[in-house]
Specification:
CATH superfamily: Diaminopimelate Epimerase, Chain A, domain 1
Structural class: alpha+beta
CATH architecture: Roll
Largest sheet: 3 strands, antiparallel
Number of domains: 1
Order of helices and strands: EEHEEE
Distance between the termini: 36 Å
Strand content: 35-45%
CATH class: Alpha Beta
Oligomer: single chain
C-alpha cells in the first residue's frame, strides 16, 4: 500500500489507511475476516486483523526522525 499525504508527500506507513484497506478487502471478498492480513508499506509490514470485535493493528516500529521544538 502506498499513501500520499497532502502537504507532505508520500509517507512510509499509515496505520489508519492499512486498517481501512483490510476492512475494504474483507468486505469485498478479497480476504477473510478473523485472519492476520499483511499490509506491505514502504516502512515495513503491518499486520491487520479485522474481527467482529474491531480492527487490530500490529507491526514493528522504527525511529525515522528526531527533532526539537522551540516555543
Amino acid at each position: 500500500m502506498r499513501v500520499w499525504e497532502r502537504g507532505n508527500g508520500e509517507t512510509l506507513a499509515c496505520g489508519t489507511g492499512a486498517c481501512a484497506a483490510v476492512v475494504a478487502a474483507v468486505e469485498n471478498g478479497f480476504c477473510k475476516k478473523n485472519t492476520d492480513i499483511t499490509v506491505k508499506v514502504k516502512g515495513g509490514d503491518l499486520i491487520v486483523n479485522y474481527t467482529d470485535d474491531g480492527v487490530f493493528l500490529t507491526g514493528t516500529t522504527k525511529l525515522v526522525f528526531e527533532g526539537t521544538v522551540e516555543y
